[in-house]
Amino acid sequence: MSKTNLPPSYEESRQQSCDSQQLGNYPFPSYGYPVQTGHYTPPGQTGLWHGPGYPPASMPTMMPSYIGQGMFSSNLRDTDATSSTSVWESTSVRHAFIRKVYLILAAQLFITVSIIAVFAFVEPVRLFVVQNPAFYYASFPIYLATYISLVCCEGPRRRHPWNLILLFIFTLALSFMTGTISSYYDTKAVFLALGITAVVCVIVTLFSFQTKVDFTSCTGLLCVLSVVLLVTGIITSIVLSFQYVPWLHMLYGACGAVVFTLFLAYHTQLLMGKRANSISPEEYVYGALSLYVDIVEIFTFLLHVTGGVD
Question: What share of the chain in percent tops pLDDT 90?
Fold first, then answer.
């Protein structure tokens, strides 16, 4: 056997190992790579091949933090941009919805205040509705039918322009009924109730938009208060039909004004979104209807407190 066929010496092996390191022949995982010569890693370090002279290596148990940042930072930026765009779009839609609701509400209140002013200042009209209460009772079925159609039926409430037509008829009916009720009270009491209602509505609206208290999560409490107010109203009506008690009349009016003030805060926060409960931006008719009924009820109950029957 010639000397060239002898195995390399220890120094030659070390030199070859150093040369392979300088050339970059590092161990590669076996997944998808060609098989390389070397020694197989013992169990517990499976999947790695090691060249001659390499100590056993092991895979890291966790992904390095810089790898995670490099892989996911762009995705996070895209996600943030998408979510911020979505939030911006939803916020703009919600603001447009709120503006539409309050524009409709302003038109409704203008009609109602105008009719109340006619009933309060025009004496022949006032005497006519007082002497002919049948017109008041005739307007009640119109009010009830349009109210049920708008609140309970999604089709008429969302179909344009029928939703606005029904809302206009409803506004006229409720305005006529409110004007008829105002005819039984002194003119000063009517305008005092109007002034207090305006102040209360502005304060409640600003408070509802600024406060962290979520009135939309108090649905059960408001339902209980509504039942209590209904029962109190029935008892008050029975008592007053036999004998007029001024303090009972005023107490019932104060309780009703407080309950519907809470309802006004509740329905205001339903428009805002980002609460326990909210309404869809498509429900602008329902939003305006709810606020309008609350404001009219507050005014009607305040009449019991501020005015005396002529």
Answer: 33
